[in-house]
Amino acid sequence: MSLPPGFLDEIRNRVPISRVIGKKVVWDLRKSNQARGDWWAPCPFHQEKSASFHCDDQKGYYYCFGCHAKGDAIKFLRDADGMEFIEAVKLLAAEAGLQMPEPDPRARERTDRRTRLLEVTEAACRWFRLQLQTGAAAEARDYLLRRGLDRGAEDRFEIGFAPDSRTALTQALRDKGYDEALIVESGMSAKPDDGGAAYDRFRGRIIFPIRDGQGGCIGFGGRAMDPNARAKYLNSPETPLFDKGRNLYNLGPARSAVAKGQRLVVAEGYMDVIALCRAGFEGAVAPLGTAITEDQLRLMWRVSPEPVIALDGDAAGQRAAQRLIDLALPMTGPGQALRFVILPAGQDPDDLIKAAGPGAMGALLDGARPLVDLLWSRETEGQVFDSPERKAALDKRLQDAIAKIPDELTRNHYAEELRRKRWELFGGGPRRNARQGNARQADRKSAPRGRGQAPRPLPAVAANPLTAAALLEGASLLICALRPELVAQAETRLERLSPPDPDRAALLFDLLSHGESPAGRRGLETLRRDAHLGLTPAVIGSQDAETALAILNNLLDRLEAQRAAGTELARAEAEIQGEADEGLTWRMQQIARARHRAERPELEGGMDLNEDRDALSAQLSQFVDGQIWRKPPRR
User: Fold this and answer.
1) How do residues 173-219 score in pLDDT, each as one tens digit?
2) Where are the transmembrane segments (predicted)?
3) Which pLDDT value is given to residue 535?
4) Could you tell me what percent of the chain has a pLDDT over 70?
5) Which pLDDT value is given to residue 506?
6) CATH code matching the domain that covers 105-242, chosen among 3.90.980.10, 3.40.1280.10, 3.20.20.190, 3.40.30.10
7) How open is the CA angle 129-130-134, to the nearest 5 degrees?
8) Is 3.40.1360.10 the CATH number for 251-374?
9) Can you tell me the distance from the alpha carbon of 213 to that of 193, in angstroms, rounded to the nearest whole number?
């Protein structure tokens, strides 16, 4: 459904975001400022006791300083309640007293058709459930019991049974008044090409209902009871309701579990998901009998930014992991990552949980490996790199792989991590001999290298230098930690910071909430030890509050200007190879200063600071303008 221009803005203007979120949280009224529409509460997306979740009615956005969840009212409803976009808009429009725009006639017809098909599948689901309790299903009940599924599990996952009868379901649905054409279109029956009578698609199988994110029964999966059946598992055919490449088993319950802080775990099959859920890993889903597709990956990332792919430890699981690498690389980026768990050989999640308990599964999930590790393993394990040509071939394969990553920052981090792994393999790392397994490589390990020699980068891959924005951010946080009385005066500007480093983010939250956390203490100690920020305590410690605040505001001004020019500066940095191009560095400084003067004209000769204060401010920011993280040119 298309919405008219301005419709969403009108909803946001009429419904304060705090009214939507307030139904899910308890506001901390001591910390909140109701008059300003400034609200704080414990985050509804992860387990915590402190109020790290901030909601701003004026901006219409929320942000959690703990788990970094953020968005508007529509995003909140989608993440917290598992709603689709249009569902969330309809709910907010009703609360705002606005009439939803009328869909076009064709869209209304499709909606009505879908509703009738869902009625058929829901009726089939109830019929399958009843059949599981009949005498014909005794063998199926015994199988489920052997797999550890009691009556409670059967009810929770709505497991049913399709008797080995050609027309039992079709006739039952006809008796309920459903037209045969509708039964066939829903996928419950099939029609022979010769025009004969429709027959049941599922016969002699344990039935697993498949529901979409809104809970509608869109199809079924059936496990054959006959060991000689042509297909052990059979899914519903493609229908207006069901597309197996665009859906996931257990999606709705998993989305709710992830919203409450659980991991999204992607297993291989229905029984794996059921075993994981019953062991406490309720954010479990599975693809529907096929390899994971692009649409399923996007669906996973809508639920969680970093799903954990749990694959069986057999050859098929290994092949699935290899295929997924090539599928995911062109789609990966910030907020769209994957981690992988390869189970012990011959075991699936159900086997592992029964043999070693939920703790063993949890330990594996905690140690899940990132996608870059699997890429490296695929290209290096079982190979010997005893010639320049073989090393060059490895470099070429890795370059081709990471070239598919569309996001520049992610691509740079992949290159940096692969460069580190390459140095460990070829440059004398402790695991080189074990991986290589040949004497010539062991001899090469002792070859002399110059003192301080850096690892050789992959060809045509630039290092990722420390950014000026990171230094400015670090200096600002360190000043606020040293002089906490400045936080209240710069609070609004500090709230706009979004440190990517979790310890820095924790420190920022501690400063804004007047609290203290272990992660925040780590962030402060890291900043104190940073050689680039070593000047800060000496400059700030001896100054009055007015001067210290002026320096802090100066740094925040520069940080905002740096971020505004982030894309251009990052591109220019990437072009620098080896020693710094002093001319380019000077031009970058001039661009940043020009932006700074344009955005803060009152600082151009207008701020009431004496010469000593100007000198102090210039001294503190010198490490950024001078880009002292660069090595000086060789003479």
Assistant:
1) 999 999 999 999 999 999 888 878 899 999 999 999 999 887 899 99
2) none
3) 63
4) 79
5) 83
6) 3.90.980.10
7) 120
8) yes
9) 34
Please state, in angstroms and rounded to a whole number, the distance separating the CA atoms of residues 153 and 271. 11
Strand partners, 161: 206
How many angstroms separate the Cα of 551 from the Cα of each of 121, 474, 602, 623? 66, 14, 15, 14
- Strand, helix or coil for residue 273: helix
DSSP readout, 486-546? GTGGGHHHHHT---SSHHHHHHHHHHHHT---HHHHHHHHHHHH-GGGTTHHHHHHTS-HH
Name the residue ranges covered by the structural domains of the chain. Answer: 7-96, 105-242, 251-374, 385-445, 468-625
Which residues does 366 contact at the CB level (< 8 Å), separation at least 6?
none
Neighbouring C-beta atoms of residue 606, cutoff 10 Å? 9
β-strands 284-285, 265-266 pairing: parallel
Closest to 379 (Cα-Cα) out of 391, 367, 368: 391
pLDDT at residue 452 above 50?
no
Angstrom distances, CA of residue 580 to CA of 157, 573, 591, 616? 62, 9, 17, 27
Reported confidence tier of residue 602, pLDDT bands at 50, 70, 90 = very low
Contact 101, 7 (CB under 8 A): yes
Alpha-carbon span 493 to 490, nearest angstrom: 6
In this structure, whether the domain defined by 7-96 belongs to CATH 3.90.580.10 is answered with yes
Q: Helices 388-402 and 408-426: crossing angle, nearest 10°?
A: 160
Q: Three-class SS of residue 261?
A: coil
DSSP string spanning 6-47?
THHHHHHHHS-HHHHHTTT----TTT-BGGGTEEEE--SSS-
**Six token digits for residue 476:** 């600002």
Round to whole Å and give the CA distance between 572 and 528.
29
More confident residue, 354 or 3: 354
In sequence order, what DSSP letters do the residues of 567-606 get, joined into one string? Answer: HHHHHHHHT--SS--HHHHHHHHHHHHHHHHHH-GGGSS-
Q: Are 41 and 26 in contact (CB under 8 A)?
A: yes
Please measure the distance between the N-terminal and C-terminal CA atoms of the chain and give it in whole angstroms: 67
- CA distance linking residue 442 with residue 223, whole number of Å: 53
pLDDT at 611 > cutoff 80: no
* Residue whose C-alpha is closest to residue 24's, from 58, 59, 62, 60: 62
Distance CA 309, CA 326 (A): 15
Instruction: State mean pLDDT over 52-75.
Output: 89
pLDDT of residue 285: 96
Determine the pLDDT at residue 175: 95
User: Which string of b and e fits 314-352 if b means at least 16 CB within 10 Å?
Assistant: eeebeebbeebbebbbebbeeebbbbbbbbeeebbbbbb
The tens digit of pLDDT for each residue in 381-431 reads 888 998 999 999 999 999 999 999 998 999 999 999 999 999 888 864 444
Any bridge partners for residue 520, and if so which? none
pTM of the complete model: 0.58
Amino acid found at 80? A
Mean pLDDT over each residue of the chain, to the nearest integer: 80
| pLDDT tier for residue 439 given thresholds of 50, 70 and 90 | very low
